[in-house]
Amino acid sequence: MPDIPALLARIPDEFKPIAALGLGAFILVCLVLFHGAGLHQILTQHKRGERRLLAGRPHLVAASLLFGWSVFLMLCLHIVEITTWAFVLTYSGLVLRAYDALYFCANAYTTLGFGNVDLADKWRNISPIIGISGLFTFAWTTSALVTVVTGQGRLIDQLEDEREQEKQLRATLTSEEWGALKKERDAEKAERQKTLTQAAGTSFFQRRKTWKEEKERVAGLRRANTAEIEALRQKERQDEEKLGAGDPAAKPGDKK
Predict the structure, then answer these.
(1) Are 92 and 123 in contact (CB under 8 A)?
(2) Cα Rg, the chain, nearest whole Å
(3) How far apart are CA 237 and CA 5, in angstroms?
(4) How many CA atoms lie within 13 A of 155 on its CB side?
(5) What secondary structure does DSSP assign to 16-42, as a single string?
(6) DSSP summary character for residue 147
(7) Residue 107 near residue 128 (C-beta atoms within 8 A)
(8) Would the CA dihedral through 181, 187, 190, 192 be positive or negative?
(9) Which distant-in-sequence residues (6+ apart) come within 8 Å of 158 by Cβ?
(10) Are 219 and 191 in contact (CB under 8 A)?
(11) Are the C-beta atoms of residues 160 and 60 closer than 8 Å to each other?
(12) In angstroms, what CA-CA distances link 68 with 62, 65, 244?
């Protein structure tokens, strides 16, 4: 590995400000390319997460976690870029201690402009380059964040709409289940009343036969009621699955 501090020290003093601009511009271009690739990956991941959420049950907590994760990744991009600047300054010998370099780069990158750490006079042109890199990347992040916030709002609206429809489906299912159970109970009461009427004034063996037939009819009614309730639940599950089949780019009002 070349001795970078020694190589920089060999540069004539009158050319060091130009060398500082060249070094800073090179690092700036590399970081902007890195930042663009990182934002592209974050936006792609967020879009994929939106599609997964819209294809399944309306989980609002998962949508909030997706948004928070995207914002956290954007923050990580800036931390990595500040750390890269600090590494360059430390490795080149322009700042002796790594924590001083990190503090200096964080102040320059965010354009705060305060602190007791500074570069040598001949290399201080790197400071505005670090500030320019922060302006570029923060502006780019703001644009990407607007895209994420807009998509998040659309996602929440659609999930809320699907959640309301899911509640209505479940309420309808509960009502239909109670109706089926009431129908079964009424049918059982009618069968018992019919059995009592038929068994009145008959012998023991005839009553026993009548009760056995009544028991079989009641069991048939219960099996039919169970099958009806299961069919209602299956229909409700299919209707809920259809709620997540919409287009992620569609607005809630556009759903049929």
Answers:
(1) no
(2) 36
(3) 68
(4) 28
(5) HHHHHHHHHHHHHHHHHHHHHHHHHHH
(6) H
(7) no
(8) negative
(9) 54, 246, 250, 251, 252, 255
(10) no
(11) yes
(12) 10, 5, 22
| Per-residue pLDDT of the chain in tens (256 residues, 90 and over written 9) | 567 778 877 888 888 889 889 999 999 999 999 999 999 999 999 999 988 888 877 788 888 999 999 999 999 999 999 999 999 999 888 888 898 899 999 999 998 876 777 788 888 889 899 999 999 999 999 999 999 999 888 888 888 887 777 777 777 777 777 777 777 777 777 777 776 666 666 666 666 666 677 677 767 767 777 777 777 677 766 666 666 554 444 444 444 3
Exposed (0-12), middle (13-18) or buried (19+): which is 23, by Cβ within 10 Å? buried
Residues in the chain: 256
